[in-house]
Amino acid sequence: MSTELLEQKFNEKIDQEVRIEPKDWMPEKYRKTLIRQISQHAHSEIVGMLPEANWITRAPSLRRKAAALAKVQDEAGHGLYLYSACETLGVERDDLLADLHSGKAKYSSIFNYPTLSWADMGAIGWLVDGAAIMNQVPLCRASYGPYARAMVRVCKEESFHQRQGYEIMLTLCKGSEAQKKMAQDALNRWWWPSLMMFGPTDADSKHTEQSMRWGIKRFTNDELRQKFVDVTIPQAEILGLTVPDKDLKWNEERGHYDFGEINWEEFFNVISGNGPCNKQRIDARKKAYDDGAWVREAANAYAEKKAKKKVA
Amino acid sequence: MTDQNKFDYILQQADNCLILGQRLAEWCGHGPILEQDIALTNISLDLIGQARLFYQYAAEIQGEEKTEDDLAYLRDAWGFKNVLLVEQPNGDFGFTIMRQFLYDTFSCYFYEALMSSSDERLASIAAKSHKETLYHMKWSADWVIRLGDGTVESHNRVQQALNELWSYKDEIVIETSADSDALAAGYGVSLAELKEKRDAKITAVLEEATLSIPEGTYSHKGGKEGVHSEHLGYILADLQFLQRAYPGNEW
Amino acid sequence: MNKNWPLWEIFIRSKAGLNHKHVGSLHAADADMAVQNARDVYTRRNEGVSIWVVETKHITASDPDDSDQMYEPAKDKAYRHPTFYDLPDELKHM
C-alpha cells in the first residue's frame, strides 16, 4: 500500500474515532508527537512526586501521612502507566529517562516551584491536581489506544487527589490564624503557576492545531484554562481565601470569569531552566537513577543465573 | 491508665511500625526503579497502618481522651520504645533491604504468635498485620537473595550492610519487663520461641544469598527502654514539626 | 552494562469466576519479580485476586494488515447467532 493510501486510511480512522493501536500504521510525525507528549506527561508525574514527597515525613497527623504517601505513590504509578504506553511506540523507558536527565525532555514547569509549608500539600492537590484533571479527562478519549487506556486508569486514581488537597485547605481555613495565613500564602504562590500549567495561549501554542486534528488533544489551552478558573473561583470562596488577581471578575456577558494577564516571561523562564527548583528536581531524579544502577544490574545478573540453572 | 504494662507493650510494636514506616517513606520518589519505589511505599503504608491500629488501642487504654496522634506526635524520644534497628538511616538500597529483612523476620513470627493472644483486640490486629508482613518478608528475602547472589558489587554492598546491622538484630528479641509481664499475663508473645524460628529463617535466606554470617554476638540495646541513637531525635524533629510548632491545632 | 529490565504484560483476574484481563505492563528482572511488581503496581486498590505475567516479547499478535482476511469473513455468518432463527412468540424462552 502506498504511503498516501495508508495515511488516508489512518485519517479516516481518526475521523471515525477508531482508536489507533501499536501495530497499526501511523504517520511518523504522529508517533513522534505522541512519544513527546506521553513522555512529557510521564516525566511530570515522577518529577511531580518530589515537591510533595518533601512533606510526607512532616505530615501533621498519621491520617494525613498515609494519604500523602498513597497520593505520591499513585504518581509513581501514573508515571509507570504512561511510560508503558510510550513503550508501545517503540522506545524504551531508559531512553526516555535519559532525555529527562539531559534536559532534552520537558515536564510540567509547575514542579519547579518549591513546597514551603504544609499548606502547599493542600494547594497542590486542589489546584495542581485540579488543573491536571481538567487536562487529563479529555485524554481518556485520545486517539491512541494505549494512551487513552492509561489515562482512564490515571483519571480513576486521580479522583481522590484533588479531594484530599481541598480537605487539607478546608481544615487549615477553619483553623487558627496561623493556619489560615499558611493557606492564603500557599494559594498566593500556586495560583499563577497553576494557570500556566495549561500552556501558552492558543495564539502561541505551536502544537495545538495538529494535535487537535489527530485527536491527541481535545480542547485548546485557553479553553481549559478558562474552565479551570470558572470552577476554581467558587471553591476559593468556600474556603474564604482571596485569589491573588486584582483583575478577576465575573463577566456576565461571556458567562465566564475574566482574569488578569499571566506573566509569560516567568513561564518561559521556568521552562528554560530558571525556575527555583529546576536543577534540584533533575538532580534528585538523576541521583535516584544512578544510585539504582547497581540494584537493577544485580537483579538482571541474578535472573540470568537463575535462568541458566533452570536450563541445566 | 487501666493497664500500664499493656500500654507499654503495645507501644513497643507501634513505635517499631511508625519509625520504620517513616524511614521507608523517605524513599518515596527516590527508589532505584519506579516499580520498586512503589513497592517500598506499599510497605511503608502497611507499617503506618499497623502503627495506627496499635496507637488507637493504646490511646484507649490510656484514656484521658488521647488519640493516635497524641502518641505519635507528642512524646519525646525517651518515650519511644522502638528498637534501634528501625531508626537506622536508609543508607543505600541494599542497607534498606537488609534492615527490612531483619525486621520482617521478627515481625512476621511476632504477629503469627500474637494471633493467639488472650487479648482479642491484639489478636485481631496481629491477624491483619501478619498477612501484610508475610508479603514484606517474601519481598525483602527475595531482594536479599537477589543482591547477595547478583553481581560482585551487589554482593559486597549487601554483605557490608549485613555486617553493620548484625549487632542491631537481636535487641528486638531480648525480653524487657513489658515483654515478660505480657507473656505471663497471656496476651504477649514468647520471644525465646520466636527467636528460634526467626534465626532459622535468617540463616536459610542468608545462605541462599551466598552471604557470610557475621560471627559477632554483641547486641546494641536501649531502644525498648527509651534510650535511643542520635538518629531518633532527627526523625521526630521531622515527624512532629507541625504539631510542635502549632500546638493544639487540627490538621 | 546497564540494560533495562525486560517488559512484562500483566493480566489480572478482578474476582473469582472472571477472565484475566490485560491491564498494562511493567518492568521486572524475572517472572517472580514481575508478579510481585504487578501486585504492588496494579492491585493497590483491591483490583485483583489473581495475576498472570507474560514477558512482552513472547506475545505473538495478529498483523493489522491482515485484518480484512482475518475478520471480515466472520461478519456475514449470521446463522451462527441465535437471532438468525425465526421462532413463534408463544415460545417464550429458548
UniProtKB/TrEMBL annotation, chain A:
<dbReference type="InterPro" id="IPR009078">
    <property type="entry name" value="Ferritin-like_SF"/>
</dbReference>
<dbReference type="GO" id="GO:0097266">
    <property type="term" value="F:phenylacetyl-CoA 1,2-epoxidase activity"/>
</dbReference>
<dbReference type="Pfam" id="PF05138">
    <property type="entry name" value="PaaA_PaaC"/>
</dbReference>
<dbReference type="InterPro" id="IPR012347">
    <property type="entry name" value="Ferritin-like"/>
</dbReference>
<protein>
    <submittedName>
        <fullName>Ring-1,2-phenylacetyl-CoA epoxidase subunit PaaA</fullName>
    </submittedName>
</protein>
<dbReference type="GO" id="GO:0005829">
    <property type="term" value="C:cytosol"/>
</dbReference>
<dbReference type="InterPro" id="IPR011881">
    <property type="entry name" value="PaaA"/>
</dbReference>
<dbReference type="InterPro" id="IPR007814">
    <property type="entry name" value="PaaA_PaaC"/>
</dbReference>
<dbReference type="InterPro" id="IPR052703">
    <property type="entry name" value="Aromatic_CoA_ox/epox"/>
</dbReference>
<dbReference type="GO" id="GO:0010124">
    <property type="term" value="P:phenylacetate catabolic process"/>
</dbReference>
Automatic annotation (TrEMBL), chain B:
<dbReference type="InterPro" id="IPR007814">
    <property type="entry name" value="PaaA_PaaC"/>
</dbReference>
<dbReference type="GO" id="GO:0005829">
    <property type="term" value="C:cytosol"/>
</dbReference>
<dbReference type="InterPro" id="IPR009078">
    <property type="entry name" value="Ferritin-like_SF"/>
</dbReference>
<protein>
    <submittedName>
        <fullName>Ring-1,2-phenylacetyl-CoA epoxidase subunit PaaC</fullName>
    </submittedName>
</protein>
<dbReference type="InterPro" id="IPR052703">
    <property type="entry name" value="Aromatic_CoA_ox/epox"/>
</dbReference>
<dbReference type="InterPro" id="IPR011882">
    <property type="entry name" value="PaaC"/>
</dbReference>
<dbReference type="GO" id="GO:0010124">
    <property type="term" value="P:phenylacetate catabolic process"/>
</dbReference>
<dbReference type="Pfam" id="PF05138">
    <property type="entry name" value="PaaA_PaaC"/>
</dbReference>
<dbReference type="InterPro" id="IPR012347">
    <property type="entry name" value="Ferritin-like"/>
</dbReference>
From TrEMBL, chain C:
<dbReference type="InterPro" id="IPR038693">
    <property type="entry name" value="PaaB_sf"/>
</dbReference>
<dbReference type="InterPro" id="IPR009359">
    <property type="entry name" value="PaaB"/>
</dbReference>
<dbReference type="Pfam" id="PF06243">
    <property type="entry name" value="PaaB"/>
</dbReference>
<protein>
    <submittedName>
        <fullName>Ring-1,2-phenylacetyl-CoA epoxidase subunit PaaB</fullName>
    </submittedName>
</protein>
